[in-house]
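Review box. Two proteins, two foldings.
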Amino acid sequence: VFKMATKPRWRKYALVLCLVSSASRALAFSQLNSFGPRGLRPVTFPCQRNSAAHQTLAENFRISSFKRVSVGCYGRKESAFSKDEYAYSYDELSTDDIDDSASEDNPSQPQGTSAPYYVEASALVASGNSRLHQHFEHLRRRPFFRYFAVDLLSSCGYMPTVETPCTMEKCEITPADDVSPDLRKRDESEHSFQLDGWVRWDMPGDFTEYYDLIKEPERFTEYQGQRIWKFIHERICFQLRLEDFENAWKNDFNRFISGMHSAVSVHVVDGMPEDQRLAEYRRRLRDQKDAVQNLHFGYMLLLCAIHQATPRLTECGYMGDGAAILPAMKAICFDSLLSDPVVQRAASALRGHAQSRKAKIWKARLRTRDLLMIMNCVQCNLCRLHGKVTALGVATCLQVMIGHEGRGGGVAELHRIEVAALITVAAKFSHAIERIKHWEAQDLAAARP
């Protein structure tokens, strides 16, 4: 326009127009909440995260909001990324993310979980777990459930790391030398998996070793894993539109991951000196928003999966060890807690979304696979071992409970390592709940005058 102006006064108006246009473009770019490969300066979106402008920016530039929602990610306050992190994630906004088959007027759609439900469910699980805990403890000690082949030499593909051996003696673990040839042969034969499935694991091979989870229990090693948990909560957990009715399933997925974090924290605290445990329980669990409730919620999802897999779990021969395993397994599978409507409701949002017309459950499947792979970034061998087993148990739970269409599936095709991970992780959650009950009693006694 400036070049086309023939008279000086027209050029004056054209110059003003150009300056206004340039200022508008600069202001628009200042609203971008991302730094990509070119290192744009990160600034936050406007406050209304669901405003039309916010959604348009997110859709056009395919980036995630920096606003952090605390649901399922306890202890994580709203914050911005630092410059050494990445802004891109699976959780990108698009118009087809909205499942318009669900609405407030459609009661057939899952309502998700609410605060009153949590209170009722937590009390039910805490009391009912007392019956199941001893059976889980018995099962996890049987050979079928205690041996896992894990690759501790895999490199980290998610963040820069220094591949140095662990210098802390507490981190070191010793491979098991008493694994039966039959178990090795079975694991080698059961190597198939769905390419778009929930589950991945380390295959037996030249770079994997078998480890005994009873001889190498989860414990306090002094390893600082904040960087890994930060990645899990901010990158693997869902972040956008969590307050929307249609996304109740995303909240419940996040709660499951948060419950996994709580279970790990319990085992860490339980391995500390006795005089430190109560204070660390308060700091890591009691004072973290929804930490204990999410542990209960994750345990209910595991019980839902076990309930759905009952025909397989109660009819398996367990490689000749059925006489020692089946009584405890049946006591768990046929316990009234597993079929209780309160427990079964925990899975309703995830199952309901997977069955809906515009299901996006594939986003959760991607995340469970990443959950296993991020464990390769853990620099403590013991922590990596238990992290991989726990991630496998979480993924198996979702595979059994949801499958590809929300109705579960593949129970008859579960491999030995998947069954072992499911029961082992349920035992971890069960143990964590019992320890929290113990610390809650101590905390209450300490508060009395």
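Next protein.
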Amino acid sequence: CAILGLAAVFVGHAEAQIVRREVTDGMYGQLAYGMATAVYQVPMMFLVAICGLVPLYAVAAWPWESLPTVWLVFGTFLVAFEMAAQLFSLDGKVLFGLLNFQNLWFTSFIFSGIFVTREDVIWPLRIFTYILPFGWGTRSFFWALFHDWGVDGSDGFSGTAPCDPGLPGCFSDAVRGSPDTGFFCPGLPAVECWGDVGPRILDSIGSVYRILTSENTLAADLGYLVAIAAAFKALYLLRLASLLRLRAVPRRPPAALPPLDGPQRQTLLTVNDVVAPPSPLLAAAGRGLRFAFSDCSFAIQVRPAGGGGCARKSETRYLLRDVSA
């Protein structure tokens, strides 16, 4: 689901153009906008998370008791990627934003700890294992899903039997603190034998994929995910502020009027000449200064009547054309 943030980048890019104009016009502040978007982004990501998890639980027959914790982890995980998508929506070209977000997703996946452990990644690349959300979300997601299966006396997985850890084909429970006990799966190859209860399954899979463990790291992983999401949101606000400072500022009116020589004595105002009272222009109005405009037009592009899709070119409609006064 996190890769669906590509859609958020596309929509956010179009929204950013409107936001930059409205913030510049003074309709609201950038901090107010950033906080307002967070108010609906977080609940929407948790709604997306539950909509994806409920069908998965129903089809895979996962225990519903683990759903609240899994939902909490998965929702926070999606929030982190949503904030990253909002940051990349500010790229100058929407295609660059899409590619940058996709690159972030794959980088987060590669450095999640599933393929290479954090300790085996060299510096400075190891920094990606800390600042990207995939590893933190994956570890707690599977812990929340498996950690209590069969532990409280409920049915675990069938097909395992106890054995002496010293015998060939017997998997030891040493990683769980019980080196004198072990298990095997009669009739199954070793690569298909993971255990009968949740903690044993996590440690067995963790012997191959080191990111998985029966140790409870839920609080730490959620803290990392929240910190990453907050960092992406802060970077978004800072970048939005820098883009707003680069926008053109209307020119101030001249400090003094040029001499009015000649019979016309008229001044043509442009849209960039902002007049704020008290103004020398208004003060000079009593001296016979006449305001005039000539040949003003305002045109818009509209779709042709009857549709026609992308193949038909838009038409130019004039709301004002060659108006003078």
